[in-house]
Fold this sequence. Notes:
Blueprint: H1 5-11, E1 24-30, E2 33-39, E3 43-46, E4 52-57, E5 59-67, E6 71-80, H2 85-93, E7 95-101, E8 104-110, E9 120-129, E10 133-146, E11 152-165, E12 170-186, E13 189-195, E14 199-203, E15 210-225
Amino acid sequence: MKRLLPILLAALAVATPALAHDHDRDRDRDRGRDRIVLESEAKTYPAKSINAVRVDFTVGELNIEGTDGDQVVVKLYVHCKRESGRCDEMARDLRLDARSRGDRMDIEVGGHSLFDSDDYWVEARIQVPARVSLDIEMPVGEVSIRDVENDVDLRLKVGEATVEMREERVGRVSAGITIGEATIDARSGREQVEGLFGRRVRWAEGRGPARIDVHVGIGEASVRLL
Length: 226
């Protein structure tokens, strides 16, 4: 996340607030420096009747993993360069909202802003049933999606997005950028574009049911078919 900050701060002058909660303290070391990590209690939501999950996450690191289960599990982390009252305050302000609307679940994470990102950043780890489709909307950050088996629609304004899926599950892929680089890695080889003012790379050689559509405004879009 920290390597993105020069791009993020240059690209965005204002931040949009967002949502989560509950935390325990844990400490670890990051390249020889102390780093404080405030860790939320995992929240579990039944998803047996859910066919689609939509995630709205303002800024940070978003990691989504498909599982064989019928639950959605969300865990949040606040990473801090150093211990301070602001770190505790940020963790308290985080909000998580997950609501089911018919066969769709909407997940919103917020309560933090881009201006916190220099010394503090938020990570969300979400487990979903692999069978559900995903609709992801995120202004700023890093997104990683893996082990899912259905459609993925991902829109990221600034940052890096990576989607990994088994090739036999996929029918077609579209990866686009406005400024930056987009790649699709399949068994048949790599397709790649880079540059300014909108470029898109496509792959349509699959026989699977899933469709992957990724667009990044400024940054990198990567799809890997395993």
